[in-house]
Amino acid sequence: MRAFLLVRDDREFLCHPGEELHTDLGVVDVPEDPDPGDVVETHLGEPFTVRSLRGPDLFDHLERTGAPMMPKDIGVVVGETGAAADDRVLDAGTGTGVLAAYLGRLGADVLTYEARAEFAEVARENMALAGVADTVEVRAGDVTEELDDLGTFDLVTLDTADAPEVVARLDDHLVSGGFVAVYSPFVENARASHEAAVEAGLADVDTVETIQRAMDFDDRGSRPSTRGVGHTGYLTFARKP
């Protein structure tokens, strides 16, 4: 069994089979092959429950090399593009690798580019933790320098400053009906990507902002939370006719 969580109330620990875990409630000899739902006790007799890693857990526990794409944005990417098993995906701007990991866990074959070699190495370790090292290949380098040799893809996802340049060249690298999705933290990049898609002759070009607000419920009433960040970035989508 690969890595899993030991959970109790608001405590949550990432564990690897066979390791010794030190917690504020005692030491756990982590079992080699537990089943989800099994209860493991510390040397003080304090119980923890085994839980498998899922997408939201990966967002919390992957080693970060920058601000990862939020689950709400990943959900929009998957919903708008129909990303699915057996898709061939080109991803650029790997960073922590949360998006690549989500797509890999859907069953897609992902090739992802990270410009910084040290970040790429962390991303490889994160893919192993996510259980997708066999289906997500992390390359260190500039996707613009290798794009012409990469063939065609069902989906291209970009989180890079030079995304408009890549979008302008995608007509030869998307299958018919294939999608490109660009994540842009700044509206200027989103606009440039949108315009590049239009000029490249791609169809169904659309740019959206996703806002998510938690709700607060108390004795006084119910209202959107005043805490947290609603805006994370802009998403531009386009499709090859």
From TrEMBL:
Alphabetized GO MF terms: tRNA (adenine(57)-N1)/(adenine(58)-N1)-methyltransferase activity; tRNA (adenine(58)-N1)-methyltransferase activity
* This protein's UniProt keywords: Methyltransferase, S-adenosyl-L-methionine, Transferase, tRNA processing
Which residues belong to any copy of the tRNA (adenine(58)-N(1))-methyltransferase catalytic subunit TRM61 C-terminal domain? 72-216
* Enzyme Commission number(s) of this protein: 2.1.1.219, 2.1.1.220
- Quick check: keyword tRNA processing in the entry? yes
Give Gene Ontology CC terms.
tRNA (m1A) methyltransferase complex
Q: Which GO terms describe its biological process?
A: tRNA methylation
What top-level class of enzyme does the UniProt entry assign? transferase
Q: What is this protein called?
A: SAM-dependent methyltransferase
Q: Which organism is it from?
A: Halarchaeum rubridurum
